[in-house]
Structure prediction request, 232 residues.
Amino acid sequence: MAAVAKGIFQRENGTGARRSETATAWILRAAWLTLPLTLGPALADSLDSRAAGLRTTTSVGLWALWSVGLLATLIPHPVTLTVVRIGGPATTAAAAWAAVTTDEPVGAVIAVAAGLLVGASALSAPVGDLFVDGASYGDERRFLLRGPGPVALLLGPLAWVMVVTGTITGPLLLADSRWIPGTAACIIGLPIAVLAVRATNQLTRRWVVLVPAGLVLHDHLALAEPTLLARS
Prediction:
């Protein structure tokens, strides 16, 4: 714990971490802003052969998600970090799907590159630190804690899958006029997606807070309440 505290104090005393956070966040914002130009054509080509209702519903949903995601990238906060860390990998998945279904090889390459850039920057440590620090006040400085191994490697990705599949499966089935399975998927999937979003949000609310008196460890997975580690 002493080594962790020393490392955090060293990061705070320098400006490199701040520059890295700002630069990575703007890379994410720029990549997200240009998604209609980089990922959009491949998605449009992939959806072109689909039924009109399904194509329209998907297009409207993608534009809505793009708008929400762009707004989230512009407002650093633990809540918007949850949106970014769900939407970033979802963009990568959408790019992968578009790449294997489009007939345009150049568009596929551009889509994959854009999707990977958005996903990697959304999950990066600098973006995590910047967004959790958006809720700080006064002289404090917040640093996001990494998830424990089983959570980061298994439970986190599983929650993401539940959010994405639970959110899109039902509406897409309904848009394709498959009323019974679509209704069932909405009734079952949407509540599961809500629970998975809440679980994901809990992972973005684990941080170390640097205050004048020392460090405050805010980790509900390990501690019943925040604990102050005073400077020696």
